[in-house]
Amino acid sequence: MGAELMTEVSGRGALANIDGTVIKRAMAAVSTMEVRSLGLQVRNGKGPVGPRRQPPQHFMVRDGGDAALAPEASARHGFSFSDDILLIPTHGTTHMDALCHVWQDGRMYGDLPADLVTSRGAKRLGIEEAGPVVTRVLIVDAVPEGRPWLDAAEPVSLDLVRHRLDAAGLVPERGDALFLRTGWVEAWAAGVQDQLGWGGLDVDAIDWVLESGFPIIGADNIGVEMSPASDPACAVPLHVRLMRDHGVYFVELLDLAGFAGAAVAGMLTLAPLNIVGATASPLAPVVVF
Amino acid sequence: MGAELMTEVSGRGALANIDGTVIKRAMAAVSTMEVRSLGLQVRNGKGPVGPRRQPPQHFMVRDGGDAALAPEASARHGFSFSDDILLIPTHGTTHMDALCHVWQDGRMYGDLPADLVTSRGAKRLGIEEAGPVVTRVLIVDAVPEGRPWLDAAEPVSLDLVRHRLDAAGLVPERGDALFLRTGWVEAWAAGVQDQLGWGGLDVDAIDWVLESGFPIIGADNIGVEMSPASDPACAVPLHVRLMRDHGVYFVELLDLAGFAGAAVAGMLTLAPLNIVGATASPLAPVVVF
Amino acid sequence: MGAELMTEVSGRGALANIDGTVIKRAMAAVSTMEVRSLGLQVRNGKGPVGPRRQPPQHFMVRDGGDAALAPEASARHGFSFSDDILLIPTHGTTHMDALCHVWQDGRMYGDLPADLVTSRGAKRLGIEEAGPVVTRVLIVDAVPEGRPWLDAAEPVSLDLVRHRLDAAGLVPERGDALFLRTGWVEAWAAGVQDQLGWGGLDVDAIDWVLESGFPIIGADNIGVEMSPASDPACAVPLHVRLMRDHGVYFVELLDLAGFAGAAVAGMLTLAPLNIVGATASPLAPVVVF
Amino acid sequence: MGAELMTEVSGRGALANIDGTVIKRAMAAVSTMEVRSLGLQVRNGKGPVGPRRQPPQHFMVRDGGDAALAPEASARHGFSFSDDILLIPTHGTTHMDALCHVWQDGRMYGDLPADLVTSRGAKRLGIEEAGPVVTRVLIVDAVPEGRPWLDAAEPVSLDLVRHRLDAAGLVPERGDALFLRTGWVEAWAAGVQDQLGWGGLDVDAIDWVLESGFPIIGADNIGVEMSPASDPACAVPLHVRLMRDHGVYFVELLDLAGFAGAAVAGMLTLAPLNIVGATASPLAPVVVF
User: Fold this and answer.
1) ipTM exceeding cut-off 0.90 for this assembly
2) Which of residues 143-202 of A touch B (CB under 8 A)?
3) Which SUPFAM superfamilies does the record associate with it (chains A, B, C, D) (predicted)?
4) What tens digit of pLDDT does each residue of D260-285 get?
5) How many beta carbons lie within 10 A of that of residue A196, not counting itself?
6) How many angstroms separate the CA atoms of B45 and C113, rounded?
7) Cβ contacts of C106 on chain A, cutoff 8 Å
8) What is the value of pTM for the model shown?
């Protein structure tokens, strides 16, 4: 295909594959002008969140009750306002991982030492190094027809994904993002699956992602790759082989409930908050179809 | 101009002015494929933030130190990772106000009662109702040539803004966003101004914004409009007349340091987090030039 | 008995019953000089907490890993230190309720309107009005012999409590605190009961508490009184009749695991944090036996 | 005096010096039955706090406004309640340091390695190892007569302290706590001093504290010892020599405003929250005079 991911080490990891040509392609994918957010709702005290993480908390610090009860303190000449605060794990809703999120044998992407990540945050590879992204995204349902979701630890069938792309006339090109629907968010909401397991990509996808030239992969589950992993010696082989080794970015906990059966392309914008030294940023991916 | 803002009440406020035609215009504004974030850095314990708000706090909950000191607890087969949590006022960095943020005489946009905003958040007009936005943005420096920033409570000269737009051959059209550089963030960083005052739009801009058809206005200060206001009876007349009365969205604390002297157009994407019932969302506006 | 609680409205509620005579009695109850905390462990992400509350979160902001990995940033002349932050619901571990915590028909203790409690906290009856307490405490196991805990919604048998007090030669006097072991914390830890139900005092205890002269009642459950309540028209009749009507203070989520079979007296110190306007304070009650 | 601190390493550090004899002495110091809290007010967004720490934040999550505006959601049969959450640096108000708070050359008290302190908290010497304390406290004003407070970096005069103790007929005995008023909290509230400097104990106090047998020292400033220190090679020599080497506990940010001119004794109760692995606990020290 000639589309293989360029994986020389760069400041932005594999995002260096996204150049003006790719952005033009993204814009060319726009047809109906429909604008969609793929960000899950952020609700006080609600998940889904990964193991050992707490759900977001949303605190109102000024509201209509204050204005009603204490107008002298809360309003001037009839004007008043509301205000609030958010506590959120950076991986606690739809988010994009920073390259400082993982390491193997003490080394992060680009052979940078994990020692750069301290209580003050990451001195290198924090989410602020990703910057904003505009690219073409391919959104493909990885759930076989007739089923609501993949089972926990069920691998995505690459054949099914390729077949659906083919059927839609979509050919991956270097720089595209790939978002896969596994149905896990729906399974979680239905109480059928939990934060300890989900379907997703297996190790057979590693080479295919590189060959297809995807600098960004995403899914509607906690890790993009399936959990538990098929490799007993590595809990997250795709995080190691793709994120750590090649700087591929992972977008997790996507809201893809509306894409059952789909294989579609659109213009994707990822706008991570510029949190200095953070291991991820919550975000609402925007797609224009 | 025939471009006046349509201000019938709608679910998304003035964002209803942004249709497919506007999105096409946004894409047509793209030329160099340069992608920029206008989001300020989010730093632990650092501002700028508005009065009575605390700066963001960023807590690491797992880092390279843990892996180094307690590998048995923090790594398996050599793999480990970092994780973190963010506490952030929704208005505590670059953000987009929700329409539930303000009211006058107990009424929000669309005559909805402020009583809908309780400790559980806003039942209506929360930031989740805004949804994602793609439109054309006009970014104009409102600081006169030769000066670093507007003074506190210095009104933006509409003549200067119009002159710079004209000189750049830019004509506002209904649905465009308008972002104005006041220099306040730089003045704040230099310790010359503080969170109690800034330059910005004055009441003379109210009609002009409506006539120009801007459903979104933004600036690199805390309120878009100047502070203190010129109107002794109303602290934030533009919030009342534009946001409350007409559903115009405000984007505040923009990073426009790179736009001194500029009058430029680009494709803007706003991707507020889908925080149910929130009065705003932190975000990183993305512009493609 | 002549010991009935004086319940004229006072600034400190029923704590006005604790005078120098009571403190002397508290000291007279000391014999072995054993000092015990009745505060539960506060653990990151762990309960028990009541419905709709999140567990405490404990964030390290500086630790031994930082010193090891970045000594130049974290140590001077070999010295370094650790630091941390706590996020805790005020009712999210062992705590003492403030009188502003409850109201009936819009009125709190002393006929004060609930309107005094806004997003800025309580203007009256916040925990800062309780102040510190030193008194005699009677700690009695309310679990019948041979059982590990009361069932959910199982009322404490006042006969059992009186019997155990009698057998121990303990006579309640005005100003004493009463702490009852229900076993709920152990039942919760064992996974047998949850935050939706527990054994505790039933409505028959209301008069007895007043007649016995207890200005403070406490238990090792979420509400001192049992849940669900026996009264279908009132979820928390003791909160209404004792806290709201008479200013009796409630201490909840006590650690009484060590008091199976006990009926003992000691000198109790309650030291609520001086949180202005708060509805409760976490605390570690200290008893000297 | 024969009162020297026993400083063999123990699980509770120097608190092992407090035995039944000391507790009896504490009770013997009680005369008027006056009960006082030495805890500062905890206020949303207010200090004083040390450098790089944020002030506490207090969030209401349910209040009188909710009940008024949405009775159907907030009240049942006329009953309703308020609830709230506290975010507080463990050193961010009146607090007691844990022995894991400091180390020199990688070693904490008892030669334990600082490596035990990770993002999950301290595996050893967390505040949960201190437990509750009841002892006699000597509260002495260290501010010379006629002055409102010590200057920043002004050492406490031990002669003045000894003189005032003598004049009051108070003789330190092994196991007593020593609390010194420096006036810093008042100087801070007056805007005269800030979090970068305060008066306190200097290195000449090290031997005196050990000889006097104080396992606990406290003050109304951020560090008990003065800041900046007189020793250019060590920012906090008393933390190293007393806390690190001998397990002496420090209680900081005391509210001693009412003790100008005083040298008094009372019964002190310290009730740290049982926060597992924490470097300190906020608390409200209680003294009975």
Assistant:
1) yes
2) none
3) Putative cyclase
4) 999 999 999 999 999 999 999 999 99
5) 12
6) 37
7) none
8) 0.96
